[in-house]
Amino acid sequence: MQVLVTGGTGFIGTALLQSLEADGHRALVLTRQSLADTPSRRYVATLDAIDAAESVDAVVNLAGASLAGHRWSPAYKREIRDSRLQTTAAVVALCKRLDSPPPVALSASAIGYYGHHGDEELDEAGAVVPCFSQQLCADWEAQALAAAGTGARVCLLRLGVVLDRDGGALAEMARSFRFGVQSWMGSGSQWLSWVHREDVVRAVRLLLARDDLAGPFNLTAPVPVTARELARVLARHHRTVVAAGVPGPVARLMLGEMADELLLRGQRVVPRALDAAGFEFRYPDLGAALAAIYGD
Question: What is the mean pLDDT of the chain?
Fold first, then answer.
């Protein structure tokens, strides 16, 4: 099959393309980078470059500016929103324009959809608490669901913090550990709902293949951890000589609104819908995931 992937040169998209191509599938990849096509991969700078007669068997929409790429100025918050909503609107427009619309569309979202709930455990039916991230994800999902009007089966990928080597959040989380400092943000009691990148790819492949699956799916490992627990497990893989938290006021001074939204508060999320679908995580607990990542 041929899969259209937006954000295909990003952290998740790169691994997904490798998995798809290893099984003989082809890919159309939306990217602003100037890259040479391969026998199994064609790059496009705009979805308008895709002819209406093109065969697109599935869409995986992963595009979006990094939430942690810059301090959240009003201009960067607009970029965060526009990069997601405009690309998703363009994907839906393409689905409507194609002579044969794709039967399945997977679109990224995030567990920020729920807002902040303290220690409350959240599955896909969890309530929402308004904040910037929550409204962003709600609008993003609403845009993606418009693809259902073309007959597509739509799955919403509510991603947690994706961990693996060679990029993603882990490199930043482990920065102080490389200098001998075991650290965490704030009290360390806030929840981190994480997932190994390999399990994200495997879950995406399942959702592409299963015609009976639609709606929101939490792409998080079944055992979330607190920030202090993450630091403790990370310390097994680094030589640390001191342990210290970064006080909340200091984090806010350094990072502004982003600190409260992403670092000092979190969500305790569980993958109920994936469990119901029979998905088995290769890395259900953080210890096993980090051991695999660090090669221990």
Answer: 96
